[in-house]
Amino acid sequence: FFFDLCFCCLWRFCMSDDAGGEEQEEKVISPEEVRAIALTSWYPQFEADTLKTRFIELSAEFLAYLRADGMLLPASVNTLKRAADDDYGALTDDWDDYESDEDPEDQCPEFPEIQQQISDVIAEFGAVLPKSNWTAPKDAIWILPNRSLRCGCLEDVFLLVKASQRLGVDFSDWHDLGVAPAVLALRKWYAVEQSMEFRCFVVDGRLTGISQKNCTERFEHL
């Protein structure tokens, strides 16, 4: 069994009384609670029990690039050859044709230090799963030919991170609140059977619940 460590935030409910009894007005999560579930907060304690991860600090310039409209990639990233994967060929050719039509003035900046760090981690792990301090870019898997979060080269990482609105929220809203550092977490890729993934909820140091991680499918053997 593969357990995905997850920490449950306690929601604070603001309640008010009216003629019909108690009514829930809103639920608020505090910056402290958001910080507690950030990957950088709990990973050091549970490093031996979860996926190996490397953290890359993101500069203000890189965050501005992620927030900008469009799907432009740094020229040095876009010319890199993908990892040897038979499914990549056709899409890579189409993407190259699209990029060749761009106005030179629209070329995005280069981020040599961040690009090198990402490449180094990919070389170390073989393939990675990129995510923010909280979220994986599941909404952007359509942009990769393998239709998964597996990234085997620098271009894969840039495409996923740039295309994901989920990560965009993390790198804007939560970062602006200053609750946790702006980092790109690169986790070692494992081909895990979805039916064997579970979320473990820990409150006050005690395991209080376990649930199937993929709640959208029913697995007969479970």
Structural class of the secondary elements? alpha+beta
The description of the largest β-sheet is:
3 strands, mixed
Give the strand content: 15-25%
How many β strands by DSSP?
A: 8
How many alpha or pi helices? 8
In angstroms, what is the radius of gyration? 20 Å
Overall shape: globular
Measured as a percent range, the helix fraction is 25-40%
Could you give the distance between the termini?
12 Å
Q: What is the topology, as strand order, of the major beta sheet?
A: 1-7-8
Q: Name the quaternary structure.
A: single chain
Mean pLDDT: 78
Task: Indicate the low-confidence ranges by residue numbers.
Answer: 1-21, 81-88
The sequence of SSEs as H and E is: EEEHHEHHHHEHHEEE
Please describe the structure with a list of short key phrases separated by commas or semicolons.
single chain, 222 residues, alpha+beta, three-stranded antiparallel sheet, 8 helices, 34% helix, globular, disordered N terminus
Overview of the molecule:
It is a single chain. This protein has 222 residues and is of the alpha+beta class. Helices cover 34% and strands 23% of the residues. The chain is built from eight helices and eight strands, in the order βββααβααααβααβββ. It has helices at residues 31-36, 39-46, 60-67, 75-78, 89-100, 112-125, 154-163, 165-177, and strands at residues 2-7, 12-18, 21-28, 53-57, 128-131, 183-188, 197-203, 206-212. It has a three-stranded mixed β-sheet with strand order 1-7-8, with no helix packed on it. A hairpin with a 2-residue loop joins strand 7 (197-203) and strand 8. The chain is globular and about 50 Å long. The protein starts with a strand and ends in a 10-residue tail after the last strand. The model is unreliable at 1-21 and 81-88 (pLDDT under 50).
